[in-house]
UniProtKB/TrEMBL annotation:
Biological source species: Knoellia sinensis KCTC 19936
This protein's record includes keyword Transmembrane helix: yes
Protein name: Polysaccharide biosynthesis protein
Bilayer-crossing regions: 12-31, 43-63, 83-101, 107-125, 137-155, 161-179, 199-223, 243-259, 280-304, 310-330, 342-364, 370-389
Keywords carried by this UniProt record: Membrane, Transmembrane, Transmembrane helix
UniProt keyword Transmembrane helix, yes or no: yes
Length: 401
């Protein structure tokens, strides 16, 4: 029965994410061909700052929700549906005012970026429920459907990129809410007070959540301070495109983690999970190769000119994909085995390198240092993670027992 579910559902995860990323990329293409780079830069800066606030307030509860007990999930669900959304809205207002005072980014775009994070954060637990239940098709029907509506609004009504992405996030939340309301919610005993906070917030996962956001979002946060709004938007377009690809690959790994966590006692499941994991890792190299070959055509579709600076940024960003996938595979394997400290160690190394490059970019006013953050931070850590994983899980002999 489990194998049948895996055949039907697990392979659908990357396909659904590919459709979702493709719809988001269409919105991006329409916006870039109109020259809305400043709006794109403002949205990504606001969304990145909002995501950092969400990581601090949610504190890794999304991972606990996937891997924890029913009682833990019930407690997290109560916390995430009450005070976390209100605090996120207040943080969004504060971040918008801060960017308005310190940069030249469009204020509306920054505000829309922060607001989209609020909707995304409220959607997370419902999305995780569907992943745990292996209802991948229903999950991506909601997310892709919302993105398609946003694509049509961008194309037909000519709304800007920031408004379209916020519309997609809001529609995704509403669709998931309606879908889960139509089913019986999984119940559990809710723990309140200090004990509830201790149950919901794991210190290791708080660190993992913040480090993960910083490792992905630092370039977006730093770029407005060393680049013009148009340059910021151009760089954000390239890095967002790469992160759509990363999401396609790592969502499959995340689904493998969720299934491993749910079926820890089933040793017969592990060989299939390992094969899926290796397939995603091999796919990251293939995707990187294809993107490098198709790079000039992709830049043309996105409306970029043939500046050497833009081409260099694109190459540096693309060749970071395999290292990123390898590091996330190790991180999710640690989470599935409830080894949060090892997962935090991996992300801490990546974040430490990214922070060092960010400070260098700010001190020397160097846009190239910002473009190097994804590649250098991931590539320096990947060999260490690979050797570490090999030492913890040595390869099996070819002989059969």
């Amino acid at each position: 029965m489990i194998r049948q579910l895996l055949r039907r559902q697990a392979p659908l995860a990357p396909l659904g994410v590919a459709a979702n990323a493709g719809a988001a990329a269409l919105i991006l293409v329409i916006a870039t061909r109109r020259g809305d780079f400043a709006d794109i830069g403002g949205f990504t800066a606001g969304a990145s700052a909002g995501a950092f606030a969400a990581a601090g307030l949610s504190g890794g509860t999304s991972l606990s929700y996937v891997t924890g007990s029913r009682e833990q999930r019930a407690t997290i669900r109560r916390l995430r549906s009450t005070w976390v959304p209100m605090l996120l809205l207040l943080a969004g207002v504060a971040l918008t005012l801060a960017y308005a005072a310190t940069t030249e980014l469009p204020v509306w775009a920054v505000a829309m970026g922060a607001l989209s994070v609020c909707f995304t954060n409220m959607s997370e637990l419902r999305s995780n429920d569907l992943q745990r239940e292996e209802q991948i098709l229903r999950l991506h029907a909601c997310t892709v459907g919302a993105k398609i509506v946003a694509v049509l609004a961008t194309w037909v009504a000519s709304i800007d990129f920031s408004t379209a992405m916020t519309l997609a996030a809001a529609l995704t939340y509403l669709l998931l809410r309606v879908l889960k309301r139509g089913e019986r919610e999984q119940r559990g005993n809710t723990v309140r007070g200090i004990e509830g906070l201790r149950l919901a917030y794991d210190p290791h996962l708080i660190g993992v959540s913040i480090a993960s956001i910083l490792s992905l979002r630092l370039p977006f946060l730093v770029a407005p301070y060393v680049m013009t709004p148009v340059q910021t938007g151009a760089f954000a377009t390239l890095l967002s495109t790469q992160q759509y690809v990363n999401t396609f690959l790592t969502t499959g790994l995340y689904t493998v983690m969720a299934i491993r966590a749910k079926n820890r006692a089933n040793a017969q499941l592990e060989p299939r999970m390992a094969r899926l994991e290796r397939a995603y890792l091999a796919g990251s190299f293939a995707v990187c190769f294809v993107l490098l070959l198709a790079g000039p055509a992709i830049l043309g579709v996105l409306g970029f000119d043939s500046k050497a600076e833009t081409t260099l940024w694109a190459v540096l960003i693309v060749i970071a994909i395999p290292a990123h996938t390898l590091n996330r595979a190790a991180q999710y394997r640690f989470h599935a085995s409830q080894d949060g400290s090892s997962a935090l160690r991996v992300l801490s190394w990546i974040t430490g390198i990214a922070l060092g490059l960010s400070f260098a970019a700010l001190i020397f006013d160097a846009p190239l240092a910002v473009a190097l953050i994804p590649l250098v931070s991931e590539a320096l850590v990947a060999p260490i993670v690979y050797c570490w994983a090999r030492s913890m899980h040595p390869p099996r002999s070819n002989g059969r027992t």
